[in-house]
Amino acid sequence: MPRASVLPSDELASQWYRAIGRLFEQLDARATGNARSPAAGPMRCVLIGLGCGHALLALLEHAMTRHAQGRAVELILLPDRWPAVADLNDLLDGACRAPPPGWDALLAGWPAGLPGLHRIMLPDPSGRRLPLRVLAGSGEPSGLLRRLAAPIDALAIIASHDPARPESHAGLLRALKTCCRPQTLLLHADAGALERDAIGRAAFDLHPAPSDPQGWPPDCAFASRRGLSRPHAADRTVAAPATVAVIGAGLAGSVCAAVLAREGWRVLLIDGAEHPVAGNRQPRLADHPHLSPDDNFLARLSRHGLAAARRWREPGIRPGRLQLAADAQEAWQQRRACEALGPNAATLARPVDAREAAQLAGLPTGRGGLWLPACEAHDPEMLARAWRRSAGIECRFGAPLARWSRHDDGWHLLDPQGRLLGRADALVFAAAGAVPPLARSRIAAANALAMSGSTARTFPDSLPGTLPELARLRGQSTRVRASGLEVLRCIVAGNGYVCPLDDGTALVGASTGAGGDEGPVDADDHANIARLARLIPAFAEPALPVQRLGSAVGLRFSPADRLPLVGQLVDDVALHANWRDLARNDREPLPRVDTVHVLAGLGARGSLWAPLGAELIADRLAGRMPAIEGDLLDAIDAGRFVRQRLRRTGAG
Q1: Which of 216, 281, 252, 224 has its CA nearest to residue 54?
Q2: For the whole model, what pTM was predicted?
Q3: pLDDT class of 202 with cuts at 50, 70, 90
Q4: Tell me, what CATH number does 605's domain have?
């Protein structure tokens, strides 16, 4: 902002306060008119660039004021440079203004700048929480904007652009066509003739200049996108107050119930077992984020999952994970994976040599690898019990669900004898391997209605379900004791892992295989002890015998692509009724069962993906923009396998 620098800071701050205020005034006017009902969803406002910080402070102040008054607002920030917390404080000092509400929460939750969309919840003066999303990454702002998974209502462009690269700025404005809804408001700083021309070509109509141009930021342009506003799928909400039934009280169901209860919904947590088991019966679950040189879906999702998990649990035991490299090739790949994360990679992972690895582990490892300081190990049963104790959750255990159907007063949940277990406005299926058959029970309910004469259409039970069958994977861990093992300081992993426990013993694992016996197998214990010897070579010596103390066997469920199933359930009744039409045009949205969601197929990363999936479901029910990028949302969509079958049908 070259021209802004010649103005006194307090004058410039006042100008930005008025300019951002004008954006919100027009949004208020539209919300109370016919263009868009306030019930349609939150006002989403994006700020591109930080400038000298005045626009950010003004945006926070106006948004907080409206949010405290009951108007739902979401803020999305795309910094043109990544500031540290100290830089944010410098912005505040330079603006000569009091900090806006929520400023301390913003500083406390400010992310380290790893690529991706970051979530911060800011408490407003009324105690409600305003969602702030911060999008970090390399590349042009236009590419980052396209990652947003919900339409925008207002946009302020503060970032200066390179006059020698006009195509960059033009690309940003073209990107607005895909991420802005009709009638989106635009405020553009330092808009000369070329910028105003580009704004017009991006389907925006410029507004007349203010009557007092001296009271506005220099060369500030206001515009609105042409067209009539239409509802968007991301705007749909569950009318409050509402009851949400969560089916399954394992790790996924318990954290989902806690997240939804925190949002203010009444939660009914149902499980067929009298004493639900969390975490595949393992005494510890160790964080296991994935890193890759191309920062692929798995890497990005596990990074989001680690951040979500840390928001929903207390600090665990022995923080830190040492991921050993098998050989020089893997060590090179690990270094490349860190480079892909940018200059702030060390907050998640950094390469270490064999000497530093031994210092971190407390025992010689004989090789280096990656140090992941944010990783922890937790007792899954303790986590699940703490989540279930959250205010607003009613637990009904020993109550198996057999059928569910829609009625005027919401969803009815029935046991095998047809007795009513409960009613709810929304459902979340989080019962691990039981989710696909539970989802298919709606076909049976539809056929029951047809038999009673309520509808003329029946469906054969042989029709494929909307959820894939989940692979049943068996895993066995072994608790061991050995002289010297009590000094182990962190999780050490490679082809397997060893996790220190509080009593000086360690958990080693884990074997993996398809289905099979749920009881312990001696061969798997021996394989785990061999893993310990490979990770910490000292325990391969006969002088340090390893004593087996016990085994834990758990079952994990995963789809074929090893990514979780998260999102709204596809309506199997409507799907099969309209299969041919959907197969002919695979761009048509899939029919969904209103207010019914799935959280399943978490595989070996349930401790990371369960909190992330729970937050995404809460976002959807509340009508908020999901706190992950749009392509990741598609990658874990519960309907992705249906889409694949439709494309194969259409191609055939």
Answers
A1: 216
A2: 0.91
A3: confident
A4: 3.50.50.60
